[in-house]
Specification:
Distance between the termini: 23 Å
CATH class: Mainly Alpha
Strand order of the largest sheet: 1-2
Number of helices: 14
Radius of gyration: 23 Å
Oligomer: single chain
Length: 354
């Protein structure tokens, strides 16, 4: 009798230990953020000074724009490697419109749009590039990795062609042409905080609302969980996927506008490897690469972890080469932890069914 009681209690205790481990894995982003903040606060004097924090959050905002946009893509078990290139291209389009204008050779004139017109034009272009990715993936069954890799090269090449490989500088505009004010997007403040930070939190709020409160958000998770079942239940899988990639491109365009505004210049190589930081932030935040699981809050915290890690290493004087090594290790660990969490959740689901 005693033997049977011990045998009965063993699975319960093991499961209890696994439950604690699963909880820790789910909270990994907050734990990582706390540990990184504690480490750099101890190692770097004045790390949490108000001025330093604002600068760091401005840097984090760029990665957050990309990460928030790609979260839906990854929840559907997709990937978007083109967001860094879209960022650079959209910045180049903004620079081209400000410095060169829309040339009409047949009339011998150039039209210089105002900033209030340039911004929506660039956002639409970013969204359209994302939509093309979605259409190629859904209509022609191109694997997301291959499709967005190809798009990355096409868009990066288009950025080079737009300026002949040169940088568009002086994006402050010209008062006589009525296209001034672009630099305010990256430099102006509201209640002591840069516009970019406010934009980051607003975008996070909007996307979180879409994920939690709308039918579209529920469909995104359903597709990631089981695409075939979602289609049988009436979800328009193709349409949802196209919109998912459109949102990704749109968010990359926001990042492109902010970066060019902050630099008051547009360079065709801007955004190289930015997609890796964004993917790392999403996976760190608890979104599964297998799809069906993820949170917007987790993605935002993941962006903070990646951003603080990068800026902290710079403040410590760590070589850029070592920074790349450390980021790579973080990405690999994030994927390993994600796989461990998936296995534990699957095991817990089986135990509950029994």
């Amino acid at each position: 009798m005693k033997i049977s009681q011990n045998m009965a209690s063993q699975p319960s205790s093991v499961f209890s230990g696994e439950s604690l481990l699963l909880l820790a894995l789910k909270m990994r982003t907050f734990i990582a953020l706390f540990l990184i903040l504690a480490f750099f606060t101890f190692m770097v004097p004045g790390f949490l000074a108000a001025s330093s924090v604002i600068i760091m959050v401005k840097h984090i905002a760029i990665n957050a724009f990309l990460a928030l946009g790609i979260t839906f893509v990854i929840i559907t078990a997709g990937i978007d490697l083109s967001i860094g290139a879209i960022l650079g291209f959209c910045g180049m389009v903004a620079g081209w419109l400000i410095t060169k204008g829309i040339v009409l050779p047949m009339f011998g004139i150039a039209i210089f749009p105002s900033v209030w017109l340039i911004v929506p034009i660039v956002l639409v272009i970013g969204g359209l590039i994302g939509a093309v990715n979605g259409i190629l993936i859904t209509r022609y069954n191109v694997a997301p990795f291959i499709c967005t890799l190809g798009t990355m090269y096409v868009v990066r090449g288009a950025s080079m062609l737009l300026s002949g490989g040169e940088t568009f500088t002086g994006l402050s505009g010209n008062e006589q042409l009525g296209n001034t004010g672009f630099e305010l997007i990256g430099s102006a403040k509201l209640l002591g905080l840069p516009y970019a930070i406010w934009m980051m939190f607003i975008l996070a709020g909007v996307i979180a609302y879409i994920a939690k409160r709308t039918q579209f958000g529920r469909h995104v998770f359903a597709i990631g969980d089981n695409e075939h079942s979602a289609e049988l239940s009436g979800v328009k899988v193709r349409s949802v996927k196209v919109w998912v990639y459109t949102i990704s491109g749109f968010c990359a365009a926001i990042a492109g506008i902010v970066v060019s505004s902050q630099l008051v210049a547009s360079h065709p190589a801007t955004g190289v490897s930015f997609e890796m930081n964004a993917i790392a932030a999403v996976v760190l935040g608890g979104t599964s690469l297998a799809g069906g699981r993820g949170t917007i809050m987790g993605t935002l915290i993941g962006a903070f972890v990646i951003g603080i890690l990068a800026d902290g290493l710079v403040m410590m004087g760590v070589s850029e080469f070592w920074q790349m090594v450390i980021k790579g290790v973080v990405i690999i660990l994030a994927v390993i932890i994600d796989q461990k969490q998936s296995r534990l959740q699957h095991k817990a689901a089986i135990v509950q069914q029994k």
